[in-house]
Amino acid sequence: MKVSVVTAVFNGAETIADTLDSVAAQTYPDVEHVVVDGGSRDNTLEVVKQHGRRVARLISERDRGVYDGMNKGIRAATGEVIGTLNADDVYADPDVLARVAAAFADPSVEVCYGDLVYVKRDDTSAVVRYWKAGNYERDALRQGWFPPHPTFFVRRALYERGGLFNIDYPLGGDVELMMRLLWKHQAKAVYIPNVQVKMRLGGISNASLRSIIRQNVVIREAARLNGLEMENAFVYYVRKLAGRARQFVVRPR
């Protein structure tokens, strides 16, 4: 079973070498890495050529943002299972994709996901936050639960049935997609109880307090779009704040 990894990048020369190396280091043999560059003006393409030992396809052209780039990559990918890895992020160890493939060995599984750690931008070994996703419970979506998107892998057939990223959501587009697949299309999801991805701090959705607030407003809009009735807004925000605070305290074993 081929596993495709899609990386969308724009001016990512500073960090994308680590991303590429973490994919190239995977022990699972049947991996396809698709890199979609949005017309970078730095030396991103040179870095991809130097470190992209497992890059099967490189697309470089202007796009309408990260989710448009991811959609291009998903359409170009040929794997039965597809995941996305941001140009700031790295796989936590060389067996990440082997665990993903093992989860999809069950033909009824349509989605898998795992845990994620936020790390310092200049030191991916320094853990700042630990996002323990936990076992999948569909009703938890009503409370604003969703898995870490960089750990989220989808069977191609589900993308064909449920659609790709909605680029009208430049913030929260990943959550809207996961809601749509998990809630509206009732995908069967399994949890991999391992840290799968290290995410550098400083991403778009966490860039400022305003971005965080806007993203959560979008999440509730996306819920209505997909027929998901979420809990009371006050309870939702209190729960979200408590969950985020816990991520700074708990550490992976």
The run of helices and strands is EHEHEHEEHEEEHHEHH
Mean pLDDT: 91
Radius of gyration: 17 Å
Please tally the β strands and state the result.
9
What ranges have pLDDT less than 50 throughout 5 or more consecutive residues?
A: none
Strand fraction band? 15-25%
Topology:
Elements: E1 3-9, H1 16-24, E2 31-37, H2 44-51, E3 55-60, H3 66-76, E4 81-84, E5 90-91, H4 96-103, E6 111-120, E7 123-131, E8 153-155, H5 156-162, H6 173-184, E9 189-200, H7 209-225, H8 233-249
Helix pairs in contact: 1-2, 6-7
Description:
- The chain has 253 residues and is an alpha/beta fold.
- It has one domain: Spore Coat Polysaccharide Biosynthesis Protein SpsA, Chain A, CATH 3.90.550.
- 35% of the residues lie in helices and 24% in strands.
- Strands 1, 2, 3, 4, 5, 6, 7, 8 and 9 form a 9-stranded mixed β-sheet that branches.
- Strand 6 (111-120) and strand 7 (123-131) form a beta hairpin.
- The radius of gyration is 17 Å and the shape is globular.
- The two termini are 31 Å apart.
